[in-house]
Amino acid sequence: MLAVLLCFTAQAQPASSEPVDFMHSNGRIYVVMAVVLAILIGLFIYVYSLDRKISKLEKS
Amino acid sequence: MIRKSWWKLLSFVLLLYTCTYGFLVPVPSPAGVPLQETIRNLFFHFPMWIGMMVCYTVSIVYSVRFLRKPSLVNDIYAKEYAITGTVFGVLGLITGMIWANYQWGKAWSGDPKQNGAAIAILIYFAYFVLRGSLQDESKKARIGAVYNVFAYFMLFPCIWILPRLTESLHPGGRGTEGNPGLNPKDTTNAMRSVMYPAALGWTLLCVWIATLRIRVQLLQEKKLTHE
After folding, report:
1. Is A14 exposed, middle or buried (0-12, 13-18, 19+ CB in 10 A)?
2. Chain B partners of A36 at a C-beta cutoff of 8 Å?
3. Structural domain of residue B221, as residue ranges?
4. Domain assignment present for B24
5. Is B12 on the interface with A (CB under 8 A)?
């Protein structure tokens, strides 16, 4: 079954023989999405923690 | 209002949606306009300009308010919104250069809109130089406020009007269809369903950052008056 899968991928992507799992599918767009989401969530965590810090300073 | 949470959460949700569905929404590939996947930059590059315009608009409103009632709070709001607007404007320029490098062949083509946007942002840099050159606080605020009004009105010929009157690589120039933000041939309704939330999400993030800066300045002022 592995041989069948490898043959299949060898036909579709002659340059590589990687498995076509979720992250490799669709031109690996999900990799781009993961990168962008990581940046976005990191940014929001930063801005949120700044907001909390400032709120704390304003209360005292 | 600037301490409320709902619009900050909304910004996060809208941007999560933008950064996921924005990569998956089907995009048209008409034969005449080989933008391919880069049209997705409409969800990222274009909202930087929207955020900038909103911030600069709020800034001029507070500058005018300052001129009518010279309070420090009005000046702080005007300055911090101008700073945040400039940051997003610079991000718009940089993301535009990245896109242009691969779409138009060069990062800077001397395209009327590129030049216009650079000039408009330079005019705002001059606002900060002007403020920095004045020592007296009230003079800095007053002269800054007057210049801010001028800088705001210069945005319109530089970015929105002149680039439409001449031939331009951006959509909307003479001889091309559409407006400087959107070419109807390049967008679909599905894409618009991402683009408007994206513009709102990025703008709200822009405003959030500006309000944080304002709150820090207000805290510093409070500390100074208590000492």
Report:
1. exposed
2. 19, 23
3. 45-226
4. no
5. yes
pLDDT tens, residue by residue, B94-129: 999 988 888 888 889 999 999 999 999 999 999 999
Would you say residue B28 lies in a domain?
no
Residue B113: inside a domain: yes
Phi and psi angles of residue B23, each rounded to the nearest 5 degrees, phi first: -90, -15
> For each of chain A's 60 residues, which pLDDT tens digit applies?
666 555 555 445 444 556 678 877 777 888 888 889 999 999 999 999 999 999 999 988
Average pLDDT, chain B: 90
Query: From CA B59, how far away is CA B55, in angstroms rounded?
Result: 6
| Residue B12 with chain A: CB contacts under 8 Å | 44
Which two three-digit tokens encode residue B72? 């420090």
- The answer to whether the CB of B140 falls within 8 A of the CB of B127 is no
**Structure confidence at residue B11 (pLDDT):** 95
Query: What residue of A is the nearest CA neighbor of B44?
Result: A36
Residue B27 lies in a domain: no
The answer to whether B94 touches B84, Cβ cutoff 8 Å, is no
Q: Do A55 and B3 touch (CB under 8 A)?
A: yes
H-helix segments, chain B: 6-24, 45-68, 72-103, 112-133, 137-155, 162-165, 189-226
CA distance A37 to chain B (A): 6
Domain count within chain B: 1
Least confident among B16-20, B25-29, B88-92, B132-136: B25-29
Model pTM? 0.85
